[in-house]
Specification:
Largest sheet: 11 strands, mixed
Strand order of the largest sheet: 1-2-5-8-11-14-17-20-23-26-29
Radius of gyration: 20 Å
Number of strands: 31
């Protein structure tokens, strides 16, 4: 479906393959591709793209274009849509603000809150009640738990537990530097706090309820409940276990969801 307003080109494109709840609110200039499922009580702000084709789907599109002499611009959305096959799911109560792009195959759980200008790549999962903060980049096949706060960049295949505040960057070591090479990714446990602009690098794990200070650079695994700061990061303390009890109860409440 495509609508052009008389007052200017504010176009809404919704794939014929998509399932859209009538109880959701969709602003002008939204594009929804492929077999997307938009559940009840979802709010989608302007200039949001849902189900954008993954690199694999784009490769099929490129192969198709090589066989064409010309492409009509009016058919752009329809052509793009025809190559999107992965299902993108937006569960009930999700809010998606202006400028956010969600690639195909991703799953956004109930009551997640996505701020402005976020990119969520293909085959990601964002947990229930999770807030993704303005400008975050969530790369391919990332798994984010429930009740989290996410900012910065999460490299491909990063794993984040429940009730974690990940405000820094998870990244590969890039030992090889060849595009397409698969490298191990960080694993971040439950109830972890990672401060702004901290770097979590390589095949390491941050133990449950650990803390990494702002700007720290972590290149080795961190035990549970420990506190780390600096570049390179060093342990500077142990978290107060009594102060973690409420957070532990919250983590437990999400188990099995």
């Amino acid at each position: 479906m495509r609508n052009d307003k008389v007052t200017g080109r504010r176009s809404v494109f919704i794939s014929s393959k998509a399932t859209i709840s009538p109880n959701s609110l969709i602003a002008p200039s939204v594009q929804i591709y492929g077999p997307a499922i938009i559940s009840p009580h979802v709010i989608i702000d302007s200039n949001v793209i849902i189900g954008y084709p993954s690199p694999v789907e784009q490769s099929y599109l490129k192969s198709h274009l090589y066989g064409l002499d010309s492409v009509e611009s009016a058919a752009y959305e329809e052509l793009l849509d025809s190559f999107v096959s992965a299902e993108t799911v937006i569960e009930k109560g999700v809010v998606i603000r202006a400028g956010t792009v969600i690639y195909s195959g991703s799953y956004i759980n109930e009551k997640a809150d996505l701020a402005h200008n976020i990119v969520i790549r293909e085959n990601c999962k964002v947990g229930r009640d999770t807030n993704v903060i303005t400008g975050a980049q969530v790369m391919a096949s990332v798994q984010i738990g429930h009740g989290c706060r996410i900012a910065g960049t999460l490299c491909n295949r990063t794993r984040v537990g429940n009730c974690t505040s990940m405000l820094g960057h998870a990244m590969h070591r890039y030992k090889v530097g060849v595009p397409g090479h698969t490298e191990p990714s960080p694993k971040i446990g439950n109830g972890v706090v990672v401060g702004r602009e901290a770097a979590i690098i390589g095949d390491i794990e941050l133990g449950n309820f650990s803390i990494v200070g702002a700007g720290a650079v972590v290149t080795k695994s961190v035990p549970p409940y420990t506190i780390w700061m600096g570049n390179p990061a060093v342990q500077v303390g142990i978290r107060n276990l009594e102060e973690c009890q409420e957070l532990k109860r919250k983590v437990k409440s999400y188990e099995g969801r």
